[in-house]
Structures are given as C-alpha cells and as structure tokens.
Amino acid sequence: MSDLEAPLRPKRKKIWVDYFVNFRWIIVIFVVLPISFTLYFLTYLGDVRSEWKSYKTRQKEHDENVKKVIKRLKQRNPSKDGLVCTARKPWIAVGMRNVDYKRARHFEVDLSAFRNVLEIDKERMIARCEPLVNMGQITRVTVPMNLALAVVAELDDLTVGGLINGYGIEGSSHKYGLFSDTVVAYEIILADGSLVRATRDNEYSDLFHAIPWSQGTLGLLVAAEIKLIPIKEYMKVTYEPVVGNLKELAQGYIDSFAPRDGDQDNDEKVPDFVETMIYNPTEAVCMTGRYASKEEAKKKGNKINSVGWWFKTWFYQHAQTALKKGKFVEYIPTREYYHRHTRCLYWEGKLILPFGDQCWFRFLFGWLMPPKVSLLKATQGEAIRNYYHEMHVIQDMLVPLYKVGDALEWVHREMEVYPIWLCPHKLFKLPVKPMIYPEPGFELQRRQGDTQTAQMYTDVGVYYAPGPVLRGEVFDGAGAVQKLESWMIENHGFQPQYAVSELSEKNFWRMFDAGLYEQCRKKYGAVGTFMSVYYKSKKGRKTEKEVQEAEQAHLETAYAEVDQPVD
C-alpha cells in the first residue's frame, strides 16, 4: 500500500440512527428552515432598530448594561455559587463541540444585551463593537461606507466575541493575521467586577495578548475596538485550476499568494484575498481577489456575478467549474463576496439537504437558506450528536505553510474528506508568548510566505463526511481526531477549540502554551471564578466535582506562589 492509499476497512452494519440521519432533511425543511428564517428576520429588525439609535444612545445603554453585569458578578458567593458562565444557552453556540460545561452548577451572567455597534470612527479607522455583534450585522453597517473590518469571517452568524475569545480567519488573514490580531483594544470585566481597557502597550498589555483563544476564561468581554480598512465596491476574483498530486496542489496554492522572491509585504504582488478548495486528490481551484471600483467592474467585457442571490449556484460548486472551463475572472459585489459561503455553510449544506443545490430547490426555497447551526444542534438530540461526532468531521488544522502538502496527504490517508478548504494567515512573533505562537527561529529559514515579523500558517479546513462513512465502511471518528491532534502537536500545529477535541489536559498544553495564560489567570483573579480553558473545551460532560477540583488545584498553586518568601 502506498503512502497515499487509505487503509482497507470492513463494512459497517447500519443502525437506526443511520436511517434517521438520512431522512433528517424532512425536519430541516419543515421545522428548522422556517424557524431559522423567522429568527434571521427578527434579528435583522433588531439590528435595524439598533442602527436607528444614535451612537450616544447606544453608549448610554452599553454603560447601563455594564453596570448590571458588574452588580451581578458582585452578588456571587464563591463558597456557595458555581463558576461564572454566560447565560447563553449551550445549543446557541456555532461551534460543534458539546458545550457540556454548563451542565455543572454555575453562576450565570446575562450578556444578551451586548449586540450593538457602538461607534464607527473614520478618523482612527476603528469599529467599536459589543461581543454579540455578528459579521452580517457589521458588514451591513460598514460596507456602504466603503469600509470593512480587516478580517471578516465568512459566516453571517459568527460573533465578535466568539472570533476574539476563540478563533477567526478569512481570505485576508495572509495580510492581517487572525481576527484577534486586528483588535486594538478590549474592554473586559474582571473577576472582581472591575472594568479595564486592555491594549498592546498599556498596563494591561499582558491581558491583551492572553485573551485570544482563552474562551472567555479570563474575564467577560463587553466591547472591542477593531481595525477598519478602506475597501471598494467589488471584488475582482480570479479562479485558477490546478491539477497534480497533493504536494503539487499545495505548491500551486502557495504560489497563488506568496511571491517566491520573499516580497510578501508588497501589495502589488500579493492579492487582497486568498482561498483554495481541494476537490479531490488531483484537482483544486485557487481563488485570489483584489478590491475593484464600481467603474472598473462595469467596464465593457467584464462579468459581474451577484453570488448573494438565493437562486445562485452554491459558491464552492461555482468555483469548481474552473476545472472544466479553465481560468476565469469575474467581479462580485464586496459584501456578497464576504459572505459567499454562508448560504451553503461551505459544503455542509449538501449533507444537511442532499438536494439543496438543485436548481428547483434553489429557485423555490433557496431564500430560506441557510438553516441556523444552533437550531440544527437543538433538534438533533444526544444520539444524533454522538453519531455526528463519530461519522462526521468538522476540524480546522492550523499548520505552517510549508507543511500544507504533508497535512493534505495525512487527511487523505486517515479521513478521505473532500472538499478541503485552504486559507493562509500570518502568525505574528510577539514580545510575549501567547497560547499560539510561530515556530522558534522561523525568521532565519526564509521560507516562502514568511517575513521577519510573522510566520505564514494555513488553515486546512476539513468539513464533511469521511470517505469510509460515505462508502458504508467502519470509521473510528474519535480515533481519527486523536491521530489528527497528535500530528498537529508533532508539527507545531493548532486546533481551534470550537471543534470536537479528544485532547487530554497534558496534550492540550503540549499543543498550546500555558505560560502567559496561567499568569493572567492568577494575576487577574480568574482562578476560582472562571473555568479554565481546557475544562471549557474538554469533550464530554463536566461534573461539578471535576471542575471544582481542577479549579481548586489551580487556586492552591496560585496561593502557594503568592505566599513564597522574597529573597
């Protein structure tokens, strides 16, 4: 068997859950889609109502809501009440992992009112947003001004708070880094109820660098100031087909945005947006985008494609046409380009509604798409959820750019999941060591895509049912994820925590660096108040006893360090 050949697997005997999953589309069409559409519409009306208010009114409401949160935190009795969690229902989160930490006794703080864009400062080029502002909401506000966040995550429902405390990426991340790298300041309520503003160069600079990836376990985020950039009305998108083996596809992807002469910061050589989709082991399409004016887009001979219309071909299938017709260029309205993957949830929509991409469905019912991920989770139940954890993969592998080819071969060999999404991002070298960090000495290697200040990484997005599952063969989902995590640890990769994780606590801290995070946990009183990031991300139910014992161990360590005599 060659290195790229997948192992032979025996056939799997079907159980009742298989049949339920196959016909789940009935519940999606008649229950999930109508409710989703209603919720989207009501949310939109709420956003419009918020936009009608002056910034002064929004700020006044924000200040009042902050006071309520502080008052609520001060009501907590540490000896009787559980650890602090938000009051948000577990199924509302967009992530795929079980949000089971809320099954343990906890002290709820309601942040549901924090969903306003507080200010658009055109002079400082800053958007000040509350944590529940989502990407669809912020682009509706900024794009008409020819402004946008430097990194706009593709799915409408992704929130500012989730992208900061967790993980956020877009096709512009090869220029600006991850979503959290574009934040200028955080407004955080600490465990003692104090409100602080953390920036990269003030007295809370350690907290500023520790917040990304911390999953809200250092304090409660109530606002963030995020970098804005000037944009144009259209995105000029070039679709370039690539054919070859997986290593050759990886190199084609790297060449699409990383000059071989190392001039990575040259805007003339580097596109504004980049993504690649690997459709099978021998075919891919590399897409690059550059902002274009309305005048350029409407010149004679240029093709404008409004991909946001409900009846349009799903974006990943539209891009795939380049494999047959060859390289082509078109202009897409900028906001529609930002949210190009929303309607079909990348390609997950094909599993949720097998006929959802058909012409008749798109014309008749496409306006109902997409189903809300939260509702899909709310209607699946324990058995279906466990089935998806075993028979379905939603993982992102953040790996150094030069290891993308190896990662693709590993995914093919162990999972056989296609399509695969590739999106590059800078991982900056910082004066401190946060939870994720570049390889030591990367700047001396002068590899393609790297600069002196940042190592180029890539998100290898693996979302779909594995080949063995589609063929009816035995597949060990938990075992495959464990192997994936081991591979990432060995190759200095990182696993976003929204995904299902099989990591032990020891391996979690082999993948991520605990130093700055634990230092800030102790310094700012989070130990004993907020759950640790590992236990918040850990798969499976968390008993109150397990969580409290883990926190007590951290608490005793913190006190021991404080009580040490000074020489």
Topology:
Layout: H1 16-22, H2 25-52, H3 55-74, E1 83-86, E2 106-109, E3 117-121, E4 126-129, H4 135-142, E5 147-149, H5 160-165, H6 173-176, E6 183-189, E7 195-199, H7 205-210, E8 220-230, E9 234-243, H8 246-255, E10 273-280, E11 283-292, H9 294-297, H10 315-320, H11 322-325, E12 328-333, H12 334-338, H13 348-352, H14 359-365, H15 373-378, H16 381-391, E13 393-400, H17 404-414, E14 420-428, H18 442-445, E15 454-464, H19 467-470, H20 477-490, H21 505-511, H22 515-523, H23 533-537, H24 544-563
| Unreliable spans | 558-567
| Total number of strands | 15
CATH architecture of the largest domain: 2-Layer Sandwich
Can you tell me the CATH class of the largest domain? Alpha Beta
Strand content: 15-25%
Largest sheet: 7 strands, antiparallel
Strand order of the largest sheet: 12-9-11-10-14-15-13
EC number: 1.3.1.72
Protein name: Delta(24)-sterol reductase
GO biological process, one term: steroid metabolic process
Pfam family, one: FAD_binding_4
